[in-house]
Design brief:
The protein is built from eight helices and eleven strands. By secondary structure, the protein is α/β, with parallel strands linked by helices. The strands form two sheets. Strands 2-1-3-4-11-10-9-6-7 form a nine-stranded mixed sheet, sandwiched between helices. The longest helix is centred in the C-terminal third of the chain and has 18 residues. The mean pLDDT is about 90.
Length: about 240
């Protein structure tokens, strides 16, 4: 029987005894790709973070609220909201250990930004102010969000382009922060029409960040299924 990969996915952190929260769409996407899924409460203990990564075959850094700008040398704007520094620090540490261990990593929206910061990059704190663009800040009411989309064009022969099987893909997104400076050994391989980096990949390790939400449009575009399938396949390879 084919071995199933165990994938850790980050969640909205517990505050005031509230439970961890992970969108069912992430879980569904990973299960469709053949994975088992788990999540963990935030911790600042290095040995616990090491243990988490040692116990799984891949890591998904999920979407969510803004990242504290002080963690990447930025400054808060009047639009910075819903900060959860405990979650930020936990996920940055998870990403660093996962990259050091060279397990497959997939960062989605906020998760791509966490991955960039963990590896030494930085963010734009508010795209309309920093780049004079509002293309990506769609209505976050899901009924309106899923009706809105924009195209992303990918670098020829990049891992992301080969994984998705298409050079241009229509995506849905809702964000006002984005990767500004790429970390060393990372490549910007997908861009929106306004120049915002929409996909990045590591130069010698299966680690990908996408700024959109592929889990939301699995049934509308097979390219997004391919992304999860490729990620889980790499996790299975590492496991075996």
């Amino acid at each position: 029987m084919k071995s199933r990969a165990l994938i850790a996915i980050t969640a909205r952190g517990a505050k005031e005894d509230s439970p961890l929260s992970v969108s069912a769409q992430y879980i569904n996407a990973l299960k469709q790709a053949g994975a088992q899924v788990c999540t963990f409460f935030p911790t600042d203990k290095k040995e616990e973070i090491e243990s988490i990564i040692s116990s799984v075959d891949g890591l998904v850094l999920s979407g969510g609220a803004d990242i504290d700008p002080t963690l990447y040398g930025g400054e808060s704007s009047r639009y910075t909201a819903e900060l959860d520094v405990e979650r930020d620090r936990f996920e940055i540490a998870l990403a660093q250990v996962a990259m050091n261990r060279r397990i497959p990593v997939l960062g989605i929206c906020r998760g791509m930004q966490i991955l960039a910061i963990a590896e030494g990059g930085s963010l734009y704190t508010h795209l309309p102010d920093d780049l004079n663009t509002s293309q990506h800040r769609q209505e976050c009411d899901l009924r309106k969000w899923l009706a809105a989309s924009h195209d992303v064009e990918f670098a020829h022969r990049s891992l992301v382009a080969r994984t998705l099987g298409e050079k241009i893909v229509s995506v849905v997104s809702c964000h006002h922060q984005a990767v500004k400076n790429l970390p060393d050994n990372w490549l910007a391989v997908g861009h929106a029409s306004d120049g915002v980096i929409e996909a990045m990949e590591h130069s010698d390790h299966w680690a990908i960040g996408v700024q959109w939400h592929p889990e939301m449009t699995l049934e509308r575009n097979v390219a997004h299924k391919r992304l999860f399938n490729s990620f889980v396949h790499q996790a299975v390879i590492r496991k075996t």
